[in-house]
Write a structure and sequence with these properties.
The protein has about 190 residues and is α+β, with helices and mostly antiparallel strands. The protein has a single domain, classed as Distorted Sandwich (Glucose Permease (Domain IIA)), CATH 2.70.70. Strands 3, 4, 5, 6, 7, 8, 9, 10 and 11 form a 9-stranded antiparallel sheet that branches. The N and C termini lie far apart (about 75 Å).
């Protein structure tokens, strides 16, 4: 009888350990995440600049994976705080693919890079640059908008929500796979 109880207890402990192990979520460190994204398609020949005028790369804080929406989702972008109205710059050469108004993002821009396989998404903008339109070519460092808090951003915390998406052939502006922009921006010594 004692042997059966021991086996049952052992089985229960193993099941409990397996259940606990399934709940563990390992998050790589910042250096490990930087190593994961070493060569983003379409960007190897052109380093990105920090897309907010006056913000240095050393001021960036990696917000990738932070909890959002009351812990219902993970943040898949980099938030760059700056005063409302600060110029937002094109991080790389590309084409304005979509100017879009959304409930969560507010005033947003999607810029497809020249290679076609990467999209930069700029959200919570205060305003678009005068005359900016879909199909327009933009140059790295060109002012394309201003920092704001439109959409679901706090009015007390203006910032640029910046995403990088890798695109497969045929994918549209809202599709793609998010890539952490932090190592792409923080590892670049060129900031404006």
């Amino acid at each position: 009888m004692a042997r059966r109880i021991t086996w049952a207890l052992g089985g229960f402990v193993l099941l409990l350990l397996a259940a606990l192990a399934s709940m563990v979520h390992f998050v790589p460190s910042a250096s490990e995440r930087a190593a994961i994204v070493t060569d983003l398609p379409g960007s190897s020949s052109e380093a990105l600049i920090v897309p907010v005028l006056g913000v240095q790369r050393t001021q960036l804080r990696d917000s990738w994976g932070d909890s959002r929406g009351g812990a219902t989702r993970e943040h898949r972008a980099l938030d760059i705080p700056a005063p409302r109205g600060t110029p937002v710059l094109a991080a790389a050469d590309g084409t304005v693919e979509k100017i879009f108004e959304s409930v969560p993002g507010g005033h947003t821009l999607y810029v497809r890079l020249r290679s076609g396989d990467t999209i930069h998404y700029y959200a919570h903008l205060d305003a678009y640059a005068a005359g900016l339109q879909e199909g327009q070519q933009v140059r790295q460092g060109q002012s394309i908008a201003t920092v704001g808090s439109s959409g679901d951003a706090s009015p007390d915390a203006p910032h640029l929500h910046f995403e990088v998406k890798t695109m497969q052939p045929g994918e549209r502006w809202w599709q793609g796979t998010n890539v952490n922009p932090y190592p792409l921006l923080a590892g670049n010594p060129s900031a404006r």
